[in-house]
Amino acid sequence: MAEDVTVSRIGYGAMQLAGPGVFGPPKDRDAAIAVLREAMQLGITHIDTSDYYGPHVTNQIIKEALHPYPDELHIVTKVGAYRDVNGGWPHALSPEQLRQAVHDNLIHLGLEALDVVNLRVGGFDSPEPGSLAEPFGALVQLQQEGLIKHLGVSTVSAEQVAEAQSIAPIVCVQNFYNLAHRVDDALIDSLAAQGIAYVPYFPLGGFSPLQSQALASVAARLNATPMAVALAWLLQRSPNILLIPGTSSVAHLRENIKGAALALPENELTELNSIG
Fold first, then answer.
1. Does position 211 have pLDDT exceeding 90, yes or no?
2. CA neighbours within 13 Å on the CB side: how many for 195?
3. DSSP assignment letter at 90
4. pTM
5. Residue 54, exposed/middle/buried by CB under 10 A (0-12, 13-18, 19+)?
6. Suppose 228 and one of 44, 179, 214, 224 were both cysteines; which one would form an S-S bond, judging by CB atoms 3.0 to 4.6 Å apart?
7. Contacts for 130 with CB less than 8 Å, ≥ 6 apart
8. 3-state class (DSSP) for residue 12
9. CA distances for 57 relative to 25, 35, 118, 169, 247, angstroms
10. Handedness of CA 83, 87, 18, 229 (dihedral sign)
11. Residue 46: C-alpha distances to residues 9, 13, 99 (Å)
12. Other Cβ atoms within 10 Å of 7 Cβ, number
C-alpha cells in the first residue's frame, strides 16, 4: 500500500463487529474479540474500520483485542460520515467534522497517528458528483500535523480520484466493486499502473437473480461457496486489489481466508467474467 505500509492482500473489514445495523455493542463482545485475535493468528495485517461503526464501538473493541498493536498490523480508517438516529450515514465533510473524526479514531484506537485515513465522499455505495478539494485539503492539513501518515479516498469517481491526486498523494481507493458491478474496471487498471491499491467492498452486493445463479453454478462445480469464488475472482482481477471481507464469526473468517486462496480455472474465469 505504501513503503511503510505493507499488508496482506486478504484483510479484515471490522464493520460487523458492532451491534445490529452497525449500532451499539455486539451481543457477544468476547466473540468479537476472538474474531480479531484469530485474524492476527491467520496472518491478516490489514484491518479496515471507522469510528462511525457503532459509533465508536468497533474501534474500542479493536483496541481491547489487539492493543498494543504488533508492528506488522496496519489499521485503515474512514472519515466523512456519521450515524444519525434513523440509522442513516449522512455526510460529515466540514473541516471541523473531519478534525473531530480523526481525533475520535485516534482516541478510541489508542494511537498517536493513523496509518491510513480514507475520505468517504459519496453515498453508502456510489459516488456523488462534486469537488472533494475542501474536505481532502482538511485531511492534508491533519497529515501535515502528523496525525495521519497516508491518505486514501472512498466512494469516489475517477474524476474525484484525479482531483485528490492533484492535491496530495493517495495510497488507496475504496469503492463498491465486484464481478457483477464493474463500473471501476478502467479505474482499477489505472491505479494498478500507478502502484495504488484498490480496496473493493460488498463482494456479493447488487447481484441480480440470474447473476447470483451463474455464480452459484460456478461455485458448485468448484465445490466452493459463492463468497469464496467472488473473493478469489477479485484477487485474480488485478494485483493491486486488496480484500476486506467482514464477519463476526471465527468460522466464517476462516472460510473467507481459505476461499480467497481458491485458484479459478481459465474456463470458469471466462464464465465469471461474463456475469458483469
1. yes
2. 6
3. -
4. 0.97
5. buried
6. 224
7. 121
8. strand
9. 6, 15, 19, 30, 15
10. negative
11. 8, 9, 23
12. 22
Grid cell listed for 53:
461503526
How high is the pLDDT of residue 25? 96
pLDDT at 276: 83
Give the whole-angstrom CA distance, residue 4 versus residue 149: 9
Q: How far apart are CA 250 and CA 164, in angstroms?
A: 37
> What is the Cα–Cα distance from 34 to 41, expressed in whole angstroms?
10
Marked catalytic residue, from 52, 53, 198, 201 = 53
Q: Which residues pair with 150 in a beta bridge?
A: 116
Question: Could you give the maximum distance between any two Cα atoms of the chain, in Å?
Answer: 53
Question: What size, in residues, is the chain?
Answer: 276
**Count of beta carbons in the 10 Å neighbourhood of residue 111:** 17
Provide the grid cell at 119. Answer: 475520505
State yes or no: is 53 an active-site residue: yes
Three-class SS string for 153-167?
EECCCHHHHHHHHHH
229-243 pLDDT, tens digit each: 999 999 999 999 999
Q: What is the pLDDT of residue 86?
A: 85
Closest CA to 219 of 160, 178, 259, 247: 259
pLDDT for 78-98, tens place per residue? 999 999 988 889 999 999 999
Amino acid 93: pLDDT? 98
Q: What is the mean pLDDT of residues 128-133?
A: 97
Q: Where are the alpha helices (DSSP H) in the chain?
A: 29-41, 57-66, 95-109, 133-144, 158-167, 185-194, 209-221, 226-237, 250-260, 266-273
Alpha-carbon span 1 to 240, nearest angstrom: 9
